Amino acid sequence: MLLAGVTATAAAxxxxxxxxxxxxxxxxxxxPETQIQYYAIHGDIGFRxxxxxxxxxxxxxxxxxxIVEPWGAFVTDQHGIHQTESFEIGVSPLFGRLTFGAARxxxxxxxxxxxxxxxxxxxxxxxRYQFSSQGGGGIEYEIRPGLAFTLxxxxxxxxxxxxxxxxxxxxxxFGLIGLTFx
Length: 182
Known about the structure:
Blueprint: H1 2-15, E1 19-30, E2 37-47, H2 51-59, E3 62-77, E4 84-100, E5 105-118, E6 129-144, E7 147-159, E8 170-181
Antiparallel strand pairs: 1-2, 1-8, 2-3, 3-4, 4-5, 5-6, 6-7, 7-8
């Protein structure tokens, strides 16, 4: 196991950690059960994989990126007796995206894990620090070389992963719209 980690690190170091793209997207969504609304700005930094993986994927008309995605969100719940407005701030350091094809209009899938701090009190999270698992997909349209318009949909689950006795999770469905710079 340790040898595999050292080998992967050496392979990544040989080709260098290289930023391949950055994105800025705006998001909006809702938890249909509780009507909690989510409005956020998501930025991301996309890194290339090691050379052999990038070449193999390119031969199959796929590009892959390891993504670090920070975000900040305004969260509002205007339903029920405990109405609240809140915020969350987080980062998904273990996130990935696969983009298919080389045409101007390309589908993609994305997903990963993150950690966040939320001020939302209504849902009895047990702690203000939460973990998030999310996945989704969308399309990107290449406006010109180096610039693409993106439209995506995601499902995100957040909970404290059992680090507190109270572990009520929250699922949010949201859409994202923005630009990707390469």
